[in-house]
Amino acid sequence: MKSLHVLGIIALGIIIGVLLTNFISPDIALFVSFIAIVAGLILLDRKSVKLEGIVIMRRTKRGRDFIDRVAKANPKFWRIAGSIGVILGVLMMIVGTLFIATSAYGVASGASKGGVRLLLPGPVSSPVSVPGVFVVPWWIWVIGIAVVIVPHEFMHGIMCRIDGVRIKSVGWLLLAIIPGAFVEPDEKQLAKQKLWTKLRVYAAGSFANLIVAIIVVFVFVLVLSPALAPAGVFVAAVEGGPSYNASLNGSIISINGQPTRTHNDLSTLLDGYRPGDTVTVTTAETKYVVTYFTGDVLSPQPAAVIDTEKTKSYSVTLGANDNGKAYLGVYVAAQAVTMSMDPNIFIMASTLLLWMFIFSFGIGIVNMLPIGPLDGGQFFGAATKKKVIAKTVSAIVLALLLFNIIGPFFIG
Fold first, then answer.
1. Theoretical Cys-Cys bridge with 123: which of 27, 79, 170, 372, CB 3.0 to 4.6 Å?
2. What is residue 333's three-state secondary structure?
3. For 364-410, what is each residue's pLDDT tens digit?
4. Which of 137, 178, 94 is nearest to 354 (CA)?
5. Does residue 163 sit in the same domain as residue 239?
6. Per the structure, how many domains does the chain have?
């Protein structure tokens, strides 16, 4: 495709989106613009695009030499990395299968209203959760998919080349509006390889996704998290408790003038008082809530950004809890922080990184499920060498996965 033609289609799509904002919401207009650009690019490249079933595919030989050079630069390193990927692949398969089984049980028993969900793009400005589907803004979805696909397929290619498996082509595909990419190895040649070579190839994609997820966390922790400084405790008053009766609201930043920068600070200070004592609790106004990573890689945490210039003091008479200790009557909703970075930049960067993590980790896990067409299914089939066992396990896990998605529609 010629660059000028591509730029022209993108410009036309943007113009269509801008014009549509006069008649429909900006979110829907931009989504239509995105669809128009994708359709235009496919039409422009129609001579090289093929329809295989319901999938549009575009194969090319470009990129093969680059993959080959990277693989041959340090084959020993990539073999060690691939072997680590195999071990992690087994763990991801077990964790993923246990998760969807537990989630399916929760849906069936009514304990959970939502199981595993499809991540789809839509004309929305913020994520929308419905049974079976999680709709995210299309631009987040496109970036998330790109972050998943590129390293995923690149790693597959490297693991093929370090053991001499030929790459027939690379390319992209489109299922409806769901894009994808692929590295197409010589399947007959791969089938003749040793078991460990096959396992390295099949586990490579999810291993790459896991590495990307870890990198995202490091970027979050090392670049964004330092912009947040603990400054208080964002709380909600328990109905009928001392704080509720005093109409306490906001993030607690001190008690009797002593700072409460963390939940531990708050607990320690309260231990120094007795039931019946009257204390002055100072709170700061909460401006907005952001998300950040703590030491727990898998659990992004909320943080309430506060305005330390807008404070209010409350006189609260402490009650007694079940253990006879001083009771303020609040539960902690989040860490309260001050921010040293431009809030718009932080919110945009943290939102994007959070979704990159969710896409990379989530899709990496799902891809390693022992389901036939997925890498995990091929991995499991190669490892067991028993087609009956592989097909049976694949059918069971696929049924669990589908129940996670459609079950919430029928079980209220």
1. 27
2. strand
3. 999 999 998 889 999 999 999 888 999 999 999 999 988 888 877 77
4. 137
5. no
6. 3
Residue 84 in domain: yes
99, two tokens: 């998760």
Q: Which two tokens stand for residue 54?
A: 């319901």
Measure the CA–CA gap between 171 and 185, rounded to whole angstroms: 12
Both tokens of 300, joined, read 């992004």
| Contacts with 130 (C-beta within 8 Å, 6 or more apart), sequence order | none
202 and 165 within one domain: yes
pTM: 0.80
pLDDT tens, 132-170? 778 888 788 888 888 888 899 899 999 999 998 998 887
Together in a domain, 23 and 136? no
Same domain, 322 and 361: no
User: Phi first, then psi: what are they for 168, rounded to 5°?
Assistant: -75, -40
> Count of alpha carbons within 13 Å of 407, Cβ hemisphere only?
23
- Residues 291, 144: one domain? no
Neighbour tally for 223: CB within 10 Å: 13
Residues 240 and 207 placed together within one structural domain of the fold: no
Both 85 and 193 in one domain: the answer is: yes
41-49: long-range pairs with CB below 8 Å, 24+? 41/1, 41/6, 41/9, 42/174, 44/1, 44/5, 44/6, 44/9, 45/1
